[in-house]
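Key result, reporting period 2: structure in, sequence out.
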């Protein structure tokens, strides 16, 4: 069974939630367990599967679906107003802190921290946090709405900044123009999808919802592919198109009538595509590079701390608006970086020769460390303050996630 990536990825996808049920006194998020199992299965440990052939293709699709599902979960009706304003203000503060941190790192010997490192430090892994908060019962609470808005800015802001600043196709002003056009097309599609709903078309889609054709699901996947290609043709990273597709479908399918389609898309993404990204991240990661020299070894904890400072410090803006016992869980959750954006930044930087290999390896290593540690700590702290949790959720929060 060696070197059969589909089998081992799906085996890890099944084993991860089973390990999450072990009575350890705390719960590791299943996506974290998937990354760890990927490292164990990869060339760095058991060498049962390598990142070649079919796996890189599925990894790219899985990366896109994490952004797709993050876009679907965004309900602007729930986060508009104060949550969105605080999220935008917090992300702006994060940008200033990240620029200061990169300026300090840039002057250190053997450390070249370009602008893309600042973008990386400003990310929040909304695609990872959404399933964790969904399963913990926190997503619909006031705390969850603030977290969702902050996470949305930590996902959208870096994607837009990356598209404008890191593109090698056009100048920054040209990219800004194309960005406006792309957002206009997406907004128009959202308006058409919400307002123009011909009864005959809706009836036809309803008839095919539970047949072998699965027309609404096929149409949704076609839309995802179309926006991926459109974003790519405009010179943006394809994950921008994936997020836009999820945002579009999320707004159009909002409400009880869209629930069956959303559930089907969640099943496909969580059960099939997500494991290829998270397990693939572990398989792809070269652990040995972290111990290649002292600089890289020191940069890993330094970047992990910077993620917490850059994205956690804006939590002070929420003082008095969320319970005091939720401040640290909020900061730790905000500091969970986006692995998908991190992978894209590292690949762009290394391909263009603008990112030092040591810095690239340390960024990925620190991101994995944050993904392993911060959600777990946040879950433990939330569990300890369950008595003061917002009243819209009565269940004791955990950090488990069923893939």
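The corresponding designed sequence is given below.
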């Amino acid at each position: 069974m060696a070197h059969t990536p589909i089998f081992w990825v799906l085996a890890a996808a099944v084993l991860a939630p089973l390990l999450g049920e072990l009575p350890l006194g705390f719960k590791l998020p299943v996506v974290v367990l998937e990354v760890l199992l990927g490292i164990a299965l990869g060339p760095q440990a058991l060498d049962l599967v390598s990142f070649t052939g079919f796996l890189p293709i599925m990894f790219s699709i899985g990366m896109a679906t994490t952004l797709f599902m993050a876009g679907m979960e965004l309900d602007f009706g729930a986060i508009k107003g104060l949550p969105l304003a605080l999220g935008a203000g917090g992300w702006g503060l994060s940008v200033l802190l990240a620029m200061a941190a990169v300026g300090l790192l840039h002057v250190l010997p053997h450390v070249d921290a370009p602008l893309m490192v600042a973008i990386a430090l400003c990310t929040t892994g909304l695609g990872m946090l959404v399933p964790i908060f969904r399963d913990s019962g926190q997503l619909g609470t006031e705390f969850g709405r603030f977290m969702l808005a902050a996470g949305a800015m930590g996902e959208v802001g870096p994607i837009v900044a990356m598209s404008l600043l890191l593109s090698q196709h056009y100048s920054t002003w040209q990219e800004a123009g194309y960005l406006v056009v792309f957002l206009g097309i997406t907004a128009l599609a959202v308006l058409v999808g919400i307002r123009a709903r011909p009864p005959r078309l809706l009836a036809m889609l309803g008839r095919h919802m539970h047949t072998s054709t699965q027309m609404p699901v096929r149409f949704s996947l076609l839309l995802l592919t179309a926006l991926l290609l459109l974003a790519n043709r405009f010179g943006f990273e394809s994950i921008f198109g994936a997020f836009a597709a999820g945002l579009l479908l999320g707004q159009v399918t909002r409400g009880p009538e869209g629930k069956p389609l959303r559930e089907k898309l969640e099943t496909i993404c969580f059960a099939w595509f997500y494991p290829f990204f998270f397990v693939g991240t572990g398989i792809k990661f070269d652990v040995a590079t972290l111990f290649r020299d002292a600089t890289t070894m020191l940069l890993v904890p330094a970047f992990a701390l910077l993620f917490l400072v850059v994205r956690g410090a804006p939590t002070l803006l929420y003082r008095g608006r969320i319970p005091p016992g939720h401040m640290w869980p909020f900061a730790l959750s905000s500091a969970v970086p986006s692995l998908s954006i991190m992978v894209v930044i590292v690949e762009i930087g290394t391909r263009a020769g603008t990112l030092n290999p040591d810095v690239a390896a340390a960024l990925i290593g620190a991101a994995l460390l944050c993904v392993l540690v911060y959600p777990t700590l946040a879950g433990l702290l939330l569990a300890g303050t369950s008595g003061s949790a917002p009243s819209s959720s009565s269940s004791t929060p955990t950090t488990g996630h069923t893939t």
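The radius of gyration is 20 Å. The CA atoms of residues 212 and 218 lie 11 Å apart. This case is discussed further under Risks and Mitigation.
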